[in-house]
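User: Before I run my own analysis I want an independent prediction to cross-check against. Here's the chain; please return only the structure tokens and, at the end, one sentence I can use as a sanity check.
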Amino acid sequence: MIVLPMAGLSSRFFKAGYSIPKYQLELAGLPVFDYALRSFLGRFGQERFLIVLRPDYDTEAFVRARLAANGIEADLVVLKDPTQGQAETVALGLRAAQVE
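Assistant: Structure tokens:
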């Protein structure tokens, strides 16, 4: 299984003056999120993918749209509260997805 933790608050980017979260920023015509996804392109269809996110900034709708645009399936877990970091995000996501 490949887990993509996306539960950060993008606070460094907002403090730097950006008005959207890092994963939505465009880079050469595509959102940064697409590049993260496509870095695993060879594993799609072979591995289960889990994306753990928060509801801020309409992230779930953005992720679902980008998954569809890329023809990729993934399980999503939406966390309500901030976490203490990526390790906790992944652990909570795995627990919610009932992965041992």
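Sanity check: The two ends are 11 Å apart (CA to CA).
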